[in-house]
Amino acid sequence: MVYASLFCLFTFVFISNATPLLYDGRVPFNLTNDDLNSSIGPFLTGVKGSEDATHYTTLLGNLELPTPLWDAGTLPTEQVISVSIDNTSIFTPGSGGPQFGFRRTDLIAAVDGDSKDLDPLIESGTTVFHFSIKEDETRPLNFTHEYQIVFIEPNDGSHVFGIQLGSPFTNPTGKLPAENAYSFKVLDHALNVLFSTPFTPNSWHNFAIQVDWDQRTLAVLYSQDGSTLKQVTGIVPNLSAVAGVNGQGDFHIAVLKLPLVNPLDSPSNQGDVVHFGIQEGTDEALLYSGVFVEDTTDGISLGNDLLGSVNLDTAHARTKRSRQCHETFHQYREVGSTETYVSQ
């Protein structure tokens, strides 16, 4: 649950000019399947299983309306993108062997296949990461598992912030599904839960995560459907994150499903969630829209053509330790194109 009572501190200063847009991942209607398969456009599509990218990532065109937060009362200017996994969603990085423990499909923010030049642009000063998430009713998640769905991953494999769904991985496996399995959990670098809210069906869940890269702080804004974004935390220290260029990393929009512990595996393999564990191999998906990154020079985009200047007071925000931070610590380590997993 959330421990923050900050709405009285949220001050709007409505201004007419647009805040600087650093990256736009709102999928245009002219993006094609060939573009996705070639990583042309706003996403790198290489973190997936053995099939083409379009086996796992689907452009929905006019079949699904995106979040109304950015196109209220007008025709949509973006299309929804579906990110899915199935039993073929086994990623093979540059070394370390296939990740048999995971089922994953990741879209990485990029400009025509280039994420490394984009990362310093969107990860300096104070920037805000926007994204909206909706349930795919035809391909539901299995909430007995942990899902890591939105995160920034530096080369040390940690996450500057992360959005989690499902039951946090534990070894040994605890009660399933976990009490908070059906809720979004916004995590800081140290895996504290900054904000939690139910993953209700038939709604777009809109998030904005403000990252101050110099002071190493986070703040969270949230709304549903066409409602204007509201502050739900104060400015929260994120001091375990690495400062400077070593703390920068790729911005992922994903469905990354962790396994359950297999009691038949050896004790050492039970802790290696990348390569071992139980997966059902079911077809599962999430819908994404409203993905972009902005600078805060002129405020934060709140939706419905409104910008706001936000007073975020740390004195009124409290956090709760994430369960998996007590019981297990997951860390990815990525060196170039090589991605391995360390369990501590």
From TrEMBL:
Signal recorded as keyword: yes
Annotated source species: Meripilus lineatus
Protein name: Glycoside hydrolase 131 catalytic N-terminal domain-containing protein
Residues in Glycoside hydrolase 131 catalytic N-terminal domain copies: 21-299
A Pfam family: GH131_N
Signal peptide residues on this chain, from the entry's feature table: 1-18
Keyword field: Signal
UniProt xrefs under InterPro entries: GH131_N
